[in-house]
Structures are given as C-alpha cells and as structure tokens.
Specification:
210 residues, mainly alpha
Length: 210
C-alpha cells in the first residue's frame, strides 16, 4: 500500500489539477450558474462515475503494463510531466481561460444532467492523462500489490476532485461574483496554478528511474 507521504504528494497534485480550469470545472460551474446547485450536483455525480470508470480501467491496465513492459514507468512518467507542463503554459499564457469564464446552458432533466456530467468526464483528456501517466509514478511494486496501490491512489483522486468540485458547485455564484469584481485574483490564481504545475512537471521529468 502507498505510504502516507506518497498519498499526500499525490493528493497535492490532484488538488492542483482540479483547481486548474478544464472541461469538468467549466461545465459544472456553467451548469450551476445556469440551472442551480441541484443541477450542478447531479452533473457532479456523473463526473464522479467517469472518474471511477477511468480509475478501474487504469488500475488494471497499469498493473499489466508496469509488470510486463520494460521502461513503461519512465514513458508514462515523462508523458505525464510533459502534459503538466502543457497545463502550466495554458494557465499562464496570454489570453488563457479563467476558471469562472462560463457559458449559458439550457435547463435539462436529471437523467441528461447525469449523462452530460459522465460524458464530460470521459472525454476530458486531463482525467485520462492523470490516470495513465501520473498515477503510475506513485506506484512502487515493492510496496505490495500494484493493483491495490492503483485503486487506493485513484480513490484518493476521486475524493479530492469530487470534494473540491462539490464546494465549487455550491459556491459558484458567490465565487463568480467575487472574481468579477476583483480581476487581479483571477490573474493570481492562474499564475499560482501555473507555477505549481510547472514545478511538478519539472520534478516528474527529472525524477530518476525507480
């Protein structure tokens, strides 16, 4: 099983990623502002199911790849680092998108809200890369079952992401109004996330092979 330090480091990366604007965050905020908190929470349930499906598939696949393919860990680690670097640039580049830049959505029923949340999660490249490229670098074959470690780490990501997105859904209106009157906070958020993700990308790419 992952040790507490490994879990804490992985949770920190998950926190940085969930706070970085992406399809899931934009959709949930847009839905909450357009149709209310209830609709946002139903959509979040769909997003959480998408996380779970990715986690189970990745855990089984990572177990096979890490144990069977030489240098697979390094390939996944470098790919994850490069993607984090890309996300860092997207956060700080001129004209980058702010997290509370939303779009109007028409009201939908509970089933469609859940389905749209699930689809948004499944089509989100950030989620796919997180499970396929970032998660493996925290799996240590000498710490026990690779599958069990993958499930524990994946579950940690789900808890962090659902908790933060849930808070964002509940406070979307207040946060949006706060940021609308204080544009400097949007800039600070973007550069802070860019710095954190850039540092993590550098650490991943330069980390020695296990």
């Amino acid at each position: 099983m992952p040790d507490p330090g490994t879990l804490a480091a992985f949770a920190l990366i998950c926190l940085g990623m969930v706070l970085t604007p992406g399809p899931n965050m934009i959709y949930l905020i847009s839905r909450s502002l357009s149709q209310g908190r209830g609709a946002g929470l139903i959509s979040l349930c769909g997003v959480a199911l998408g996380f779970t499906l990715y986690m189970l598939c990745a855990a089984l696949g990572i177990t096979a790849i890490v144990l069977a393919v030489p240098y697979a860990y390094d390939a996944l680690r470098i790919a994850g680092g490069l993607y984090l670097a890309h996300m860092a640039w997207q956060a700080v580049r001129p004209g980058g998108r702010a997290p509370f830049e939303v779009r109007a959505l028409r009201p939908d029923g509970p089933r469609k809200l859940f389905a749209m949340g699930l689809l948004t999660s499944l089509l989100n490249p950030k989620v796919a890369v997180l499970y396929l490229s970032l998660l493996p670098q925290f799996v240590a074959p000498d710490h026990g079952s690779v599958l069990a470690q993958s499930v524990v780490l994946g579950s940690t990501q789900i808890v962090v992401s659902v908790s933060i997105n849930g808070l964002i859904v509940l406070g979307a209106g207040a946060i949006s109004r706060f940021l609308a009157g204080r544009p400097v906070w949007v800039v600070v958020q973007r550069w802070l996330m860019g710095f954190v993700l850039g540092a993590l990308a550098l650490r991943m790419v330069t980390e020695s092979q296990r």
